[in-house]
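QA checklist item 7 of 12: single-chain prediction sanity check.
[x] sequence parsed
[x] length recorded as 155
[x] structure emitted
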Amino acid sequence: MAKKDADKQKDFVNPIDPDKITETPSTLPYAHTVGGAVIKPTKQGVIRSRALTAMEEQTDMQLAQIKEQIDLLARQAHAIQERKDLAARIYEAKMGFKPEINHIYHLYLNHEEQHVLSMIGPDEWAKPKFKHFLYTVKLLADHTWEVLASGDSED
């Protein structure tokens, strides 16, 4: 009979997963027996969850505001770069006068494909003198130019 018991013990497979058992059940974060103490989530968990949700909403809102500010700064930088490029083009143009701040001028492209700055607007010529009217511009105090109107393209 002892042999039968030994064979029975060899065939026995413990159905409990060895990863789910412990030698020190007091360290488990839950009750380890049916009669063990009931472990309920505390209000601290609820408070923590609400605080995390509020924090995420606030930080997402602040990040969205910063993104809007970055987009605005990028648009402003692009506009300044365009004014700078236009100013370089105008200062390389032919002009027979010294431009004055807050005065309005007109940029043309002549038949030799050169830029020409004129005080005479496109509607003031008896017959067109230039190949293309490009811009009506105003000289700003920082010596850049504001485009007031656009004309033909430079094709």
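[x] summary fact logged: The chain is about 40% helix and 15% strand.
[ ] second reviewer sign-off
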